[in-house]
Amino acid sequence: MKYAKRLEIFEHIRAEYAGFLTSVLWKLTGDKELFAEAMQYALLGMWQHIEKLNGKKAGAYIYRIALTANSKAWRNRIGKDGQISQTQVSVDKDPREKADKSELEDIVRRVIAQLPAKQGRAIVMRYLEQRDYKNVAEKLNCSEAGARSNVSKALATLKGKLANLTERE
Amino acid sequence: MNNENIEEILKKLGGEDVPADVHKIAEETAENFSKALTPSRQHILWENIMKARITKLAAAAVIVIAVILGLNIIGGPDMASVAWANVAERVEEIQNYVYRMRQTETSGLKEQGFEFVTETEIITYNSSQYGNKTETYRNGELITRSFSLRQEKEFVGICPPAKEFDRRPLSEAEILEMDQMSPRKMVSRFMSADYKTLRAETINGIKVQGVEVGAPEVLRENPPPLESFVGRLWVDVETELPVWLELEFVPKGLTTTTKIVVDKFIWDVKFDVSDFVPNIPVDYTPEPKRSSATVQQKQPAVEKEGSVEAYLSKFENRNLPDIKDLRLLGLEDDEPKMDIALVGHIEIWKTQDNFIRNWPGYSEMRAQLYEELLEELDIDNLSVEELVATGLALREKFWQKGGCLSKVSYPFGYAARILFEMAHDKDPENMDIIDELVESILSVELVWQYVEDSEGKIKNTCYREVLTKLRLAQFKQIKRETEQGRALTWKDFVRVNDLTILLGGAKDYESALEVVDWLILKADRGGWVAYLNPIKRMQKRYSAGEKFYYNIYVNKKIDVFPEEYRYARRLPSFQGPVWEKRGVIPAHINDPNPVWTGD
Fold this sequence. Notes:
The complex is a heterodimer of chains A (169) and B (599).
Chain A: H1 3-29, H2 32-48, H3 50-53, H4 58-77, H5 95-100, H6 103-112, H7 117-128, H8 133-140, H9 144-168
Helix pairs in contact in A: 1-2, 1-4, 2-4, 6-9, 7-8, 7-9, 8-9
Chain B: H1 3-15, H2 20-36, H3 40-49, H4 53-71, E1 73-75, H5 84-93, E2 96-106, E3 115-127, E4 131-138, E5 141-149, E6 154-159, E7 164-169, H6 172-180, H7 183-192, E8 196-197, E9 201-203, E10 206-213, E11 226-236, E12 242-251, E13 257-267, E14 285-286, H8 293-297, E15 341-343, H9 344-356, H10 362-377, H11 384-400, H12 410-426, H13 431-444, E16 448-450, E17 457-459, H14 461-483, H15 490-505, H16 509-526, H17 532-543, E18 553-555, H18 578-581, E19 584-586, H19 587-590
Parallel strand pairs in B: 3-15, 7-14
Antiparallel strand pairs in B: 1-9, 2-3, 2-13, 3-4, 4-5, 5-6, 6-7, 8-10, 9-10, 10-11, 11-12, 12-13, 16-17, 18-19
Helix pairs in contact in B: 5-7, 10-12, 11-12, 11-13, 12-13, 13-14, 14-15, 15-16, 16-17
């Protein structure tokens, strides 16, 4: 595909999904610095896979790109020992914002970034986008029971991971 | 915390409004990204390469070479011409000259991206009376200084990195060879060949005219079989003496392109006899001689290739499951390949480290990978045999995706380790499975890495911990089984030898020496007497509280360097991907009287 054409498609797709990416990535990161990083990864993912985004499955790919971008951003922040690096914690946070924010919410966000792809999508659709199960099933291309099962599995995984994490911390 | 609590938190997150300043950040990020968009190749470079300082240098080096070889040569139609008949005659008259030769070997772009380059530079002082003095530099480091002395009929080689030297007689055949390969003879052969004249040029400010020859006889009188050859010679139009000579060829059956550029000629210089006196520093020692006695006195069971069971042979002919569509950790399959040259082993290693630095650690990803493998491959219900076959397929996929020179390969290496760990849990006494587990760990974990943007090194604790534990368990089992009558094998040697290196690396010299003593004691019965030389050197070094390492496997293919460095920084047992493993053989089979090196 020629460069000019790629650019045209990219700008079109970017405009179409800007609201979705902003909303989902903000809810998944809850931190401006992390959000900006995830957004950059998402844009890069869109650019690298522009051919796939120009087809019928664009919506499914956007989820994949958004979740991968979120995982990458979190992974950069979390060290190899699984702990958040102190040197990477944003230094310019508003102290009030920091004080008000629930630490538990941050932990949940961090753990969502580590979920298997399908489970991550299920959680995002069901809770962050507040879709009903019928809609989640359509998006995940499975039955409604399958969608419930994916959400349920994801919750169980989250619970397990949270237990591990809170034990360590 | 129960599911209801989690659901509550998730619902709260879902109900959050996006603050206005976050919308602004999103818009600015997108605008900046759009502005930064350049054609795809440059974009890939920005994303994947420019973070790596050393890779940038490699790119720059390649460009510099291109400039030297090409752009510095400026054409012009109105220059004087050379009387070619005089050139060979002029060169033949000259008795003493100096020149620089640069040899570049390029692997060509590999399927998984990257090409691998070795650069060697040799300065030669050639005297019809005294002989040759050469100084060889590899990737900028002086490797050897050698003297081929005509009158004394002696060769003296000095190796500064090893502080060693070698002295031996120089035969008439070697003197003839030295003369034949000299640029002077080469020029003569150029002039005798069927050449075509190139247009006049300027090289480094000197007006030159060139000829091009396609016959490999220019290289030497009886050239080796070549896939391709081209030679070019540029001569100063005023002095009619060579200024630049270049040869490019691919040896038959190989894929490595060799390019030789000879330049910086200083014709008709004055030499003194003192220029050809070796002056070996007093603290240099003679290079260890090859001793045939050690190997040939005994009849080792590992004497012939056929009698040595390949180390990872147990599961070799397994049918591997088809996992080509498997994606792990959401990483995309179509990661762009990087067509960039890595010059020398340090650039290869530093580039590997730049990738590995960004991989999450195994322990961090294990749980997530396990869940994905459960979902995709139902691994909890696989038999030991199936776990092994799937593990092998995953490990090969790791290599196919670029091994340690890739952003997206690591999930497959980690996944292979998970499967072999599961197989090991189910069949803990199976030493072949432990071997595969060790190989899988070695695939993704290097002994040490460079610290980012520094020459500092960090050791991988995995070697001190997991790998030592596995090899120690095997050692105990080998001792137990052999006490009960089981015969020792080559594989046992490979396993125990790894343990000596691991213990020595951890500076646990006391334990290491116990294992070394066992290796010496069992050498005759086990059939590894060919390795007594390095094992005894190891014993000496460990006794003195010094580290030691040597390789027991070498690659029998001759065109593997410099790519071979990709597979370094691991234990001696390491075999690598299938395409590498095919060429790897025990050192004593490659050469019955190997010269052992260790550090």
